[in-house]
UniProtKB/TrEMBL annotation:
PANTHER family membership: DEAMINATED GLUTATHIONE AMIDASE (PTHR23088:SF27), NITRILASE-RELATED (PTHR23088)
CDD domains: nitrilase_5
Keywords recorded for this protein, A-Z: Hydrolase
Family statement: Belongs to the carbon-nitrogen hydrolase superfamily. NIT1/NIT2 family.
Gene Ontology MF: a single term: hydrolase activity
Taxonomic superkingdom: Bacteria
Residue ranges of every copy of the CN hydrolase domain listed in the record: 1-239
Protein name stated in the entry: Hydrolase
Species whose genome carries this gene: Streptomyces termitum
The organism's taxonomic lineage, starting at the top: Bacteria, Bacillati, Actinomycetota, Actinomycetes, Kitasatosporales
InterPro entries associated with the record: C-N_Hydrolase, C-N_Hydrolase_sf, UPF0012_CS
Length: 269
């Protein structure tokens, strides 16, 4: 399976409509080069541009949905379209969209863990409630977003739901770049799953973005990593590898907390 992570730069001087069109064009350029394309978190507005969240919010089937559905269909790819600010029922959500190669919505995920410590996203957006997985050909993908990466229980839940890979779009700040790469590798190692972590580049709301999107394999090895600027990171995944690693090193079978572990017979005496 070929995957492309589009580490798009968020420039506050670029109008949202222009960035939306540019992102769609970048997705279309992956036609024939990728089976799965991933965009970052809140790329239409910027993850730290909290003062723009309400003004740039959209209904689920709004301009970003329509542009990304068309791009997925034209490129004939599975598209994790990153996330946008969704307006629904009087609340705002940080919502991710996943489209199939025919441009149909395969899944949506409202970010559960909101960042800000009683500021920004944490107070302006409502929390999602549902874990989300998507069945791609030969690979089941679990969906998380940015700050979710710090909460391993979410990814354990996705593993229990059948995930063999995680897609994590983010708007991660450069000053915590070390945490970004460390946590991506930790989630891969402890769950024996691929991690496709796609961040933004550029600076918005005065916050320099980390970039450095990366793909980690189920053994914790970094298969590819981007630099700090706008870049398309391409990698080939082996869909059989999570199952192989889990069979060769069956650590997940020894879980005792948060899951009903299978009873083992006592050794004969």
């Amino acid at each position: 399976m070929r995957a492309s992570l589009i580490q798009i730069a968020v420039d506050p001087d670029e109008p949202v409509a222009e960035r939306r069109a540019r992102a769609a064009r970048l997705v279309r350029e992956e036609r024939g080069a990728a089976d799965l394309v991933v965009l970052p978190e809140l790329w239409p507005v910027g993850a730290f541009a909290a003062d723009l969240f309400a003004a740039e919010s959209e209904p689920l089937h709004g301009p970003t949905y329509e542009a990304m559905a068309a791009a997925a269909r034209d490129a004939e790819v599975w598209l994790h379209a990153g996330s946008f600010v969704e307006a629904a029922g009087g609340s705002l959500y940080n919502t991710s969209l996943v489209f199939s190669p025919d441009g149909e919505l395969a899944a949506s995920y409202r970010k559960i863990h909101r960042f800000g410590f009683d500021q920004g996203e944490a107070v302006l957006m409502a929390a999602g409630e549902d874990l989300v997985t998507v069945d791609l050909p030969r690979l089941t993908v679990g969906v998380g977003t940015c700050y979710d990466l710090r909460f391993p229980e979410l990814f354990r839940g996705l593993v229990d739901a059948g995930a063999q890979a995680f897609v994590v779009p983010a708007g991660w700040p450069a000053r915590r770049l070390g945490h970004w790469t460390l946590l991506a590798r930790a989630r891969a190692v402890e769950n024996q799953a691929y991690v496709l972590a796609c961040g933004t580049a550029g600076t918005h709301a005065g916050v320099e973005q980390a970039g450095h999107s990366l793909v980690v394999d189920p053994w914790g090895e970094v298969l590819a990593e981007a630099g700090p600027g706008e870049e398309v990171l391409r990698v080939v995944l082996d869909p059989s590898k999570p199952a192989e690693i889990r069979e060769q090193f069956p650590a997940l079978k020894d879980r005792l907390l948060g899951i009903a572990a299978p009873r083992r017979p006592h050794p004969s005496r």
